[in-house]
Structures are given as C-alpha cells and as structure tokens.
Design brief:
single chain, mainly alpha, 10 helices
C-alpha cells in the first residue's frame, strides 16, 4: 500500500501536539494526565479503520444504518459510564440521546432542509449523535455535582414533603443550561471565531462556500435541537433523587 507523502508530517504534528498536551497536564499534576494522549491514539486508530470501512459502505443505506447504530451504542455506553455506569444510567442515556437524535433528524429530512441520502444521513447522524453524547454527559455530571454541593437544600425540600424531582428542579434546569453552553457558544460564534469541521470539510470536498454554509447551519440547528431534548430528558430522568449521590470520578 502506498502511503501519501503528507501522512508522515501529519503524524509528526499529531505526536508533537499530543506531547504538548501531556507535558502541560503532567507538570500541573492533573489527575489522569495521560488521558488526552490515549484518546488521541485511540482516535487515530479508529479514524483509520472507519475511513477504510466507509469507503465500502457510503452508498449502502442498510450498512449506513448499521454504522449509525454502532455509533449510537458506543455513545450511550460512553455517556452512561461518565455519569455512573449502571442499568439505569444506560436506560437514561439511551432514551435521552435517541429521542434527541430522532427528533432532530426527523425535522431535518421532513422539512427538506437536507435531502434524505445515505451521505447526508451518515454525516448529520454521526455529528448529532456525538454532540448529544457530550451534552448528556455534561448534564448528568453537572446535576450530580450540583445535588452533592447543595444537598442541604435538597434535603430541606424533601423534609418539607416535596417530591424528589421538585426538590432538584432548579438544579436540573441550571445543569441543562450549563450543558448547552459549549454548543450555544460554538453556534453563535460560527464564522467569527469558529469555522466548524463540517463547513471546512465540505469546502475542501469541492462544495461552494454557500452550500457548505447551508449544510453547516442545518447541522448546528440540529445539534441544538437534539442537545436540548437530550439534556432535558437526562435531567428529568435523574431528577428524582432521594439520597445523596456518590461523588463522580
């Protein structure tokens, strides 16, 4: 197999950037300082494998559906692990992420914002699933930490006879807001601070800047819709807390 000439410089750059991240974290004695390096190594291998796989399935709707299901399953497992792996957390992340993704993608294709093709289904499905995973993780972790930090307040509500979800409602709302902040900031600074990967990739692929922009704004709106649904459902699911949660790792 012939290796493209620009692969070696790219690998050198990735290794150098990984070293920078690791050294900075190690010097500051951050727990799990090697996590970014391991994540980059794993991501490199996974991208290499998925690039080969997608070459063979990009025109097959059935295989695209299988690929999206695999992505969804991994996203559910990752998010559930971050908020405390259990059968309940798997149910929370699975239902919340799936609801967000289904609603957002249904609106995108039903309105004709994007044509329902294998390529678009894979592109927007993967992006929305990944962002929903992150938002579910942030919502769950934010809410758990908020309940721990404000347990006296929650316990006071419970002592007065409030239902568990009522006692954590303000904390849940704040957790949803905070989980959406990265997506909101990315969306409102698009074109000013951020040139999203989908936009840049579409231009590099030969699409006109106008068409790339149209695709990107649809993607950003889908992320916001899916993330909002996902975050609210995670917060609702997790809001019925009767005992103080264990601290997250």
């Amino acid at each position: 197999m012939i290796v493209p000439a620009d692969v070696v410089p790219s690998l050198v750059g990735v290794v150098a950037l990984t070293a920078v991240a690791t050294v900075v974290l190690v010097l500051f004695r951050v727990p799990a300082s090697w996590s970014p390096a391991l994540a980059i190594a794993r991501g490199t291998v996974q991208l290499a494998v998925i690039s080969v796989i997608l070459t063979g399935i990009i025109e097959s709707p059935s295989l695209i559906a299988v690929a999206l299901c695999v992505m969804f399953a991994v996203a559910v497992g990752v998010a559930a692990g971050r908020i405390g792996m259990s059968g309940r957390s798997l149910a929370i992340t699975a239902t919340s992420i799936s609801a967000g993704v289904v609603v957002a993608c249904a609106v995108v294709f039903a309105t004709g914002a994007l044509a329902l093709t294998s390529r678009y289904a894979l592109a927007i499905g993967a992006i929305v699933i990944g962002n929903s995973m992150s938002i579910a993780t942030l919502t769950g972790r934010n809410l758990t930490r908020a309940v721990i930090d404000h347990w006296d307040e929650v316990e006071g509500w419970l002592a007065l006879g409030a239902r568990p979800r009522v006692s954590t409602l303000a904390l849940a709302r704040r957790s949803v807001r905070d989980a959406l902040i990265p997506s909101i900031d990315q969306t409102k600074t698009t074109g000013l601070v951020v040139l999203p990967g989908a936009f840049v990739g579409a231009i590099f692929g030969g699409i006109s800047p106008f068409e790339a922009g149209r695709f990107q704004i649809v993607v950003l709106a889908a992320i916001m819709a899916a993330g909002s649904v996902t975050a609210v459902l995670v917060a609702t699911w997790m809001g019925g807390i009767r005992v103080r949660p264990h601290p997250l790792r």
